[in-house]
Amino acid sequence: MKRNHEVDSESQKVNQFPLKVKLNLEPKVQKPDAEQSPECSEVASNNRSGSNNLVVNNPYSSELEENVGGFYNARRGFNIKGYIGKKPIGRGTQSLVWLVKKDEDYGAIKFSKSTTFLIKVALDEVQILKKLNAKSKNGHPNIVKLLEHGFLSADNALYCFMILELLGPFLFFALHHSQTEMHMENKKKICRQVLSALSYVHRNSVIHCDVKPENIMLVISKEDARCQANNEKIDTATFQIDLTDPFFDVQVKLGDFGSARSRENDRYFKELQTCLYRAPETFLTTKIDTPVDIWSFGRMAYQLVFKHRLFSCNMDNNEHNLKHLNMMSSVLGPIPLAPFRENLRPEYVNFFDDSGNFIDLGCVPARQNFLEMAAMHKLNVADALELDDFLRSLLKYEPSHRSTAEQALSHAFLKTNNVRASQIKPNTQRATSQ
């Protein structure tokens, strides 16, 4: 039986939005969790098992509980499909995410912003996740699981919601907002798992269109989930994840399919992909396919290894697209017209010279190539050479010449180095609570 604030997405079409339902927004008084134990307290957070726990700082925490127009005004203690709202854990331009608990299980509820377009986007994401999750009993081990979905109405607005499995911090936060220095073996494991997810996505005729560290999440233990639910702080979180240990069983999942497209139905559209990870054909043409995800993954892999973005992107500059393309040329060589001629956007027609290469606008300083970056970061020779070949196989201008996800999985760079404990230098920089 449905509660008075729930509407199943299958039975409610987007054009039937004038929907009047009551939603109980009064927070319920929650009894302390019976399993709560002292190790979840702020004081003891660094004393939990594991000497190199991952401590992640959220630089956007001050914004999470602000009531911003268009977003669902969630309050701690809300009840949706039996899931109790514990605290906000994320917010983007299109959605708000809360940590929720149902009985002894935890999840993350994602509320779409209340506009007709964004509700349609959310419904498209639901359908893609249902398709991907339905292909096997337990879904793919490296793709986020959809648990529930539906609509709710509040404050004269309609919202689409998805309840997803609870995952840990974004890979981006683990890279750039923690003191942990990730071991190369764990970087390789993460690359393998993301490629496995992309291979599965592409086999099922889906293009993710937004592969980036912010959409890759670390899997956490049930204990970590409980501790995060019981910790009211939203600016810092501690997880029993030791990324400094090459033998740690790190697991990640690909999430946020809000920009994803079906290969059969919709490959002609305006620019997609986050600018920092956008493929050349997304800039230059009106048609894309699964190789755009491979390009984005290649740039993410570079960032994972070096903790630097391959190319910057200044959206405030009206000429940022041209500058970005020149950055590609400075590292990867001239961009040829041939792979993009058939579907070239008209605004780029005059930016190729007589020899068929993208014009050098002289706005980009010389940049280090992959081998030079590897030397700066003191990679061993074998890793440096294999990484150079790996990245170049992913970042080819001709989309059909890039490695597929399945092909990339067998690249030599992703093979384990069979490190031994005696070969690993102890990590001298321990994570501390902020």
Automatic annotation (TrEMBL):
The keyword Oxidoreductase does not apply. Residues 83-414 form the Protein kinase domain. Residues 25-34 have a biased composition (Basic and acidic residues). Keywords: ATP-binding, Kinase, Nucleotide-binding, Serine/threonine-protein kinase, Transferase. The keyword Nucleotide-binding applies. Gene3D superfamilies: Phosphorylase Kinase, domain 1, Transferase(Phosphotransferase) domain 1. Coiled coil: none annotated. Residues 43-54 have a biased composition (Polar residues). GO terms for molecular function: ATP binding; protein serine/threonine kinase activity. Residues 25-54 are annotated as: Disordered. InterPro entries: CLK_kinases (IPR051175), Kinase-like_dom_sf (IPR011009), Prot_kinase_dom (IPR000719), Ser/Thr_kinase_AS (IPR008271). Belongs to the protein kinase superfamily. CMGC Ser/Thr protein kinase family. Lammer subfamily. This is Protein kinase domain-containing protein. It comes from Caenorhabditis tropicalis.
